[in-house]
Amino acid sequence: MSRTCKLGVLAALALATVPASASCPFLGGQKGSQPDLGVGVDRALGSYDDSYYSGSGADFSRETYEALQADITAVFTDSQDFWPADFGNYAPLMIRLAWHCNGNYRQSDGRGGCDGGRIRFNPERSWADNTNLDKALTLLQPIKLKYGDAVSWGDLITLTGNEAIRSMGGPVLGFCAGRLDDASGFDSLELGPSPEQEAVAPCAVNGTCEFPLGTSTVGLIYVNPEGPLGVPDPAGSAADIRDVFRRMGMNDSETVALIGGGHAFGKFHGACATGPGADPTDAPEAPWPGTCGDPDSPTFGRAENTFTSGFEGQWTVEPLVWDNAYFKDLLEYDWVMTESPADQVQWFPVLKEGATETKDEIPDIIMLTSDIALLYDEEYLALVELFASDLSYLDTAFAAAWYKLTSRDMGQFQRCVGTDVAPPQDFQLPLPEAPTDLPDTEGAKSAIMSILSSDPSYPALFVTLAWQCASTYRSTDYLGGCNGARIRFSPERDWAGNQSLDQVLSLLSLVQDEYPDVSYADLIVLAGNLALDLDDLPFCAGRVDAAEGDELISILEPREYDDVIVGVRDRMKIRGLSVAQMVALAGRPRSASHMVALGFSGSYTDEENPALSNAFYVTLLTETWEEVPGSNGQEFQAVGRSGIYVLATDLALVWDPEFKAQTVMYAEDNEQFLKDFASAWTAVMNADRFDGPTGNVCDDAPDSDDSSDDSSSDSDSSDSSSSDSDSDDH
């Protein structure tokens, strides 16, 4: 599948950041087409194509970007007969589109978000929560056709949400452009509902879904607005809201600001009890046609006869105006349950005891159980009171939370392009500016080589350190990697898979003391490269160091899976690795002492300092394996051979037929293995060296250092881990 690099008008405004030669990843490293919901690996590392990005946006000026904004704004008040605008304005509908495209992001694996524009495809397009958003996409189609590849669907949808907020007087912090369009919904399969979702994130009872899913209900963006499992329990709904929003990376203030700020606009639709009609899966030619009203009426199934959520009404009396009335009304009235025309529970306001206004002055508004929930939680209630009393505080909180909502899946600040990009935000894990002049690493290289030659166990440990540092990278949300060297700090250094690596870092600290211009991050990768002892292994310097750890890093910690093959395959996909890359990287030699420190019995070889070779694959295929007693199926020993151990994640390479084919190939061809390993290793080490949305500072950079050396330190280590230990598996 070609992941078309439709970066948008803003790309031209940042040509100094994103060179015209920047490129775009393709499925599994292959050009071609991908069937809808087919197989493959999108967002592949080290596999790019310039055909879509080259020249895209190069002719766009600031004036043209402003013309795009104007074209978007013009859509809002141009009501169309096929889908008449509520209150004569599509802006609230477009906010819903942008929210639902971006809001399904989850921290557990970085999946979701509007990068890719996959709300256009199944499974997302058929979610109940996305009912009738196909109409919003249809309204934007003329703009997409006008600007073509210069603006991606992901950017267009998100920018339209921003402009909708602005058009109604709301605050917008900025716009991080650079989303890439996917050609299918392949990368949303794990969001569900699908067999892939059930494999990696099962949910026994839909409506009570837990981590690693983001939502409580597959098919909804957050929670059931009617209450947990449809029960109108505000206190229970508040607990669900906090749980789900935290899984998606939002704190209490951001959560309440987003709910109330978003509900300042628009209305919901539930004109009858017969529903919206067939979804896009069942009726792709005319999804959600509507079933409400007189079939002979020109507004049958739309306008006043629309069914979207099944609720009917509006949150505020001025649904096209930004204000804090939502919060004021929540506090000013008591709320009583009623039912919509679709027989769904919603709440209407009544006067509080002792109120001075009359019943005639009660606004014609409603709330949902998930709104009333904010009154039933002490922390949420305090925020409701704050936002009700201080509109400027709400302005600031909502603008920041909306920017976070719409930018979390874009990764680090360096990937954003355009002149409206907000300053670096905490959720982007900002780092110091990269050096303009690359450090001279020759002296550091010599010092590292001296350390490697001083103890035969060191080479494997240095490679383990480099792998553990860099392999946190996720292609799903572009977070992780070794830039910043946060493995030196909690929480990352405390992960089970990083046990005993402090001693390796302490050795590198001696080098850093002598060569302070070389960052720890560069030293970690350089030492790993040198320890591999591969000819012509490129090294790209210029990484920087974070000053401290960040709790957000904890989302990158490897999680456990119920099925070992599912786990290996899922981590492969999250990292953007192809099968060949994953299998090649699994063959790195590992330190037996480090494996023991992790709680295992040993390694696949009893050599103290094994050279990087295809011996791992030969051993996997030629030995007979039995489970190590007490290992809970996580470790196996070779029958009849003392001291030879592998993990279940290693044996997955022979249990899975696709993995096994690659394993056999490497067992037969050591030269091919070494070549593929070097390529895959370099791709992982450099994956987080962003230069705009598709560029990498290492792509065209001359090697800062040829990491090979005549002195032999012929070991590479990394623990292909067990899920129980949380050390890294392939």
List the topology elements:
Blueprint: E1 24-25, E2 48-49, H1 62-76, H2 91-102, H3 133-147, H4 153-167, H5 195-200, H6 234-247, H7 252-262, E3 267-268, E4 313-314, H8 325-332, E5 333-339, E6 345-351, H9 369-372, H10 378-389, H11 391-407, H12 442-454, H13 458-470, H14 502-514, H15 520-532, E7 538-539, H16 564-575, H17 579-586, H18 592-597, H19 615-622, E8 625-627, E9 635-638, E10 645-647, H20 648-655, H21 657-668, H22 670-686, E11 690-691, E12 695-696, E13 705-706
Antiparallel strand pairs: 1-2, 3-4, 5-6, 7-13, 8-9, 9-10, 11-12
Helix pairs in contact: 1-3, 1-4, 2-4, 7-10, 7-11, 8-10, 10-11, 12-14, 12-15, 13-15, 14-15, 16-20, 17-21, 17-22, 19-21, 20-21, 21-22
Largest sheet: 3 strands, antiparallel
Number of self-contained structural domains: 2
CATH architecture heading of the largest domain: Orthogonal Bundle
- Any idea of the CATH class of the largest domain? Mainly Alpha
Per DSSP E runs of 2 or more residues, the count of β-strands stands at: 13
Radius of gyration: 27 Å
Principal-axes shape call: elongated
CATH topology of the largest domain: Peroxidase, domain 1
Strand arrangement across the biggest beta sheet: 8-9-10
Mean pLDDT: 89
Low-confidence stretches: 1-42, 47-59, 709-727
